[in-house]
Structures are given as C-alpha cells and as structure tokens.
Amino acid sequence: MASISKLLGPLSRSLTPRFSSAIEAGFRRRFSAETRLEEEIARIRDGGVGDEQVARIQREFDAAKESFLKIPEALRMMPAMNPEGIYINKNMRLNDLQVYGFDYDYTLAHYSASLQRLIYDLAKEHLVNELRYPESCLKFEYDPAFPIRGLYYDKFKGLLMKLDFFGSIEPECCYFGRRKLRREEIIEIYGTRHIGRDQAHGLVSLMDVFCFSEACLIADIVQHFVDEQLEFDSSYVYQDVNHAIQHVHRSGLVHREILSNPPKYLVKNGQLYHFLQMLRDKGKKMFLLTNSPYYFVDGGMRFLLEDSLGCGDSWRELFDVVIAKANKPDFYKSDRPFRCYDMDKDRLAFTKVDVFLPNKVYYHGSLKSFLQITKWHGPEVIYFGDHLFSDLRGPSKAGWRTAAIICELENEIQIQNKDSYRFEQAKLHIVQELLGKLHGSVTTSRTSKAYQSLFEELNNERQRARCAMKKMFNKSFGATFLTDTAQESWFAYHIHQYADVYTSKPENFLFYPSEAWLHVPHDIKIMPHHIKVPSSLFSKH
C-alpha cells in the first residue's frame, strides 16, 4: 500500500502527515480491510466457491435479514455522544492554559443560513456585472442542501469532490457541475480513485463555512455552461468565482449588508458573554485575532452582547488585545508590523507599536511581533478558529494549543445518536463481514450462479445501507466527518492533524471545570465523537 504522503503528493506540502509510525500503522490496519473489499467489489474476477460454503454464508445472511426487521434493544442502550461536547485529539489540562485567543467569524460570531444566500447572490451579480458572465446566471439560486465543508475542486478537470481519510475520491461524491459521476467515469478520468502526484496540484480546498456558497456557485456555473453547450476552461471558472467571493468580502459589501440587518444574519447566544467573563474572572488573558475589519467586528459584537453588557460598557474591555485585518494565514509567517487603528478618525497611526495598550485596536502585524510584544509562548496559549488552514495550522506549528470550531458538529452528532442511523451502520457492518467471508471462500476459477446471486444480494443490501446513511446528512456529499462507508473523511484527517480539540462553539467550555484534564479516550476510533456500532448487536436476534 502506498504511503500516506504519496497518496496526495504535493497537494500542498502542508498536507503531508506527521503522525508517528505507530499511529500511522494503526490507521493503516484500520482502513486496509475496507480498501481491499472496495477493490474486490469494483473488479470481480471469475472464480467460484463450493456450494456448501456459499450455502453457509447464505444462511447467515438470511438470519441477518430476519434481525434487520427490528432494531435490537441493545442498540437503543448504546450511549449517546454529547452534541455540545469537547472532543480531544491531544491531551490538554485546562488549568495549564493562561491565554485564550479567538477568531471572529464562525467562532465568536455565528450566522444564520441567510448569510450563504447573501454571499452567493452578491458573487453571482459581480460575475455578471463586472466579469461579463451570461445574464442568465442571475437566475441561479443558492441550494443549501448541496454543499458541505471540506470539499475539493479540481481546477483542471472541473470536478467537485469529497475525499476519504487517505485522499481517495469518494465514488458517490464526485460531481461535474450538478451531475454525479459514476465510478467508471472517475476511473476513466484519473485512472484510479487515489489522487496521484500529477493530479494533486490541481486541487483547491474549500474548508470553511464561507466556502458553501463558493462550492455551490462553481457547480452551478459549470452545469450552466454544459447545458448551454458553451466552451469553457474549468480553471477560469474557479478563478472567477473565487475572485467574486473575495470581492464580496474585501469590498465590504457583505459586511455592510450584515450590519444593516443584524437579526437576519447573526445568531445571538447568551452564553458567549458568560464564557468570556468567566475567563476574565479567572485571570486569563484574552485576545481577538481576525481578518475582518474593525467596524464590522465592532458592530457584530455590540449586537451579540447588547443584552449582557451594561450601559456604557465596551466589549473590548473583555480582551487584552484586539487585532483586526490580520491577513491570516500570512500573519503567521510574515514580518509585517502592527499599526494602531484610530477608531474615531478611521485611520492608522504612524507611531511604532511595541506594546499593546488596553482598549486599543491594532491592524495587520505578524505572529513574530505578537510573541515579542506579549511574551505569550507555547502551550499556555490556545487559539480558537473555524478554518483549519488559515486559523489553526500556523498556531499549531508555533506550539500553541488549538481548538477547531465546527458548527456542523452538533447536527452530525445528533444524527449519529439516532437509532435509525446506528441501525443502518450495524447492518452495513454485517454485510461487510459477509462479503469478506464470501470473497475469502473462493476456491475455484469458475463463478457459480449461487455465488453470483449471493454477491449481488449482499452488495445491493450494502449499497442500500450506505445510501440511507448518506442521505441522513446530505443527499449529495453525506457527512462532513464521515464517508459513505462510515469511515473518516479527509476533512476529519485535517481536524486530527491541526486541532488539539474540537467542538461546535467556544461556549461549550463552560460545561467543563476550569481545572479539567481533557484526555484522549482509551478506545479512540480516530475521531473521538464517533461511535462504531458493532454487528454483534444483532447476534441474539
């Protein structure tokens, strides 16, 4: 089996795994059986099994189908995972943390579904009005049921796809426009489901929630060009859509629209103030580090905390340092100096910044200067962010502790806690085991009718279970953290690599004692919020 690093080649040098050999070996054992089974099913070769062996497996399957008629009581008794829990990839003692840093968008501030439609509409208007895209594109409507976080777009082939833990294309999650490609088409294009060295450099990641509108708009434009039989270069489509999305943010269009109607776009949470005040009361240092401009952050924080702050109080008093327009991820590797921002005159000061003063706002800067001024170093600092690359990769490499804020986590855990999902997962595991037995029982070079019949029946049942599980999350791409086979996705791999802990929102830390020791579960499955439902639950039925 190829090494993990070879699976993606230079997808970006930053994606190269740094796991220890022992952990990597464990992951390989975990996924090797599934990979072998997928390959065997994809290319059944002529062979045969003895009638007695096939008959025995058929009897096991018939018995299993009887058990499929009723959800086992043991499955109902399985523990539920906490949708608001903190999930740990690396051990962490909370009383060792003295400094808490936060991103703003989708970390302290959470948005309603209306925001994605707003970004989508503003971007398509820019494409038509400024980049001269066909006016028919204005008829497009954002489809919230289509995209998920963690997708990849192949600029050269125009394909939007989801990757599994080892960087292989999910066969039911690869789209050209809005048309889902068959496995045979994927193989014809790439030669294999595994992304090779030559293809990897054409992939771009869509890793944060703001990418939902981007992924949807890319797919809609590609589909429109195909339907209208217009010639196009898929790399230009990505370049133009990405430019339009960036313009919407950098021009302030989306910021002004949000501030014009905060209740429509911002989601209030009364626990946010209590969390920040709790940290302040315990003597923790806090800083805000965001790419957004100050006026936008100020307007949003005023709205979010207006029910908690007293008259005349400022949200800035909760933080020791406020940094806006930081330009992450370049912030982590540049030498750009800090500038003090004059809030009243809306301009930058010219004096050198060598100390951070209370109730002031700073622009730009770099991690190097930040560490020199604050003297906050290493594992005493934890930074919360939603973008794995822009927010967390730099701090992780700098030795800070990192917390990924994944707002979709609550919904995905709620689905995984349902009996219906666990029932389908257990069925899938049973069928997987029987398929493995069937393939392992081949003894002759000729395929019997009994073998073919059983294989088709098992594979059809397997596909039904996979389809049912996928549709519980998202009809196009399934779960953010999981593949259709209930294994971890490539997005989950990055969470494992760059996030020491992950949760749905920072306020979830309120539910844990300030001296708590967050430790990796002894029965870790890779992603600690996943429960693997064993097929043995059906053994008594």
Task: Explain what you see.
The protein is α/β, with parallel strands linked by helices. 42% of the residues lie in helices and 13% in strands. The strands form four sheets. A ten-stranded mixed beta sheet has the order 1-18-17-16-3-11-12-15-13-14, with helices on one face. A five-stranded antiparallel beta sheet has the order 8-7-6-5-9, with helices on one face. The longest helix is centred in the last third of the chain and has 25 residues, at 449-473. Mean pLDDT is 86; it is low at 1-30 and 43-49.
Set out the fold topology.
Blueprint: H1 4-8, H2 21-42, H3 51-67, H4 73-76, E1 87-88, E2 92-93, E3 99-102, E4 110-111, H5 114-129, E5 151-154, E6 159-163, E7 169-176, E8 179-180, H6 183-190, H7 197-200, E9 203-206, H8 211-227, H9 234-250, H10 253-260, H11 262-265, E10 266-267, H12 271-281, E11 285-289, H13 294-305, E12 321-324, E13 338-342, E14 347-348, E15 361-364, H14 367-374, E16 381-385, H15 388-397, E17 401-405, H16 409-417, H17 419-440, H18 449-473, H19 490-498, E18 501-503, E19 517-518
Parallel strand pairs: 3-11, 3-16, 11-12, 12-15, 16-17, 17-18
Antiparallel strand pairs: 1-18, 2-19, 4-10, 5-6, 5-9, 6-7, 7-8, 13-14, 13-15
Helix pairs in contact: 3-17, 3-18, 5-8, 5-9, 8-9, 17-18
Poorly predicted regions:
1-30, 43-49
Q: What's the oligomerization state?
A: single chain
What is the gyration radius calculated from CA atoms? 25 Å
Count of runs of 4 or more consecutive helical residues: 19
**Shape annotation:** globular
Structural class: alpha/beta
Q: Kindly state the percentage of residues in helix.
A: 40-55%
Beta-sheet strand percentage? 5-15%
Q: Give the integer mean of the pLDDT values.
A: 86
Question: What's the main sheet like?
Answer: 10 strands, mixed
Distance between the termini: 38 Å
**Strand arrangement, largest sheet?**
1-18-17-16-3-11-12-15-13-14
The total count of strands amounts to: 19
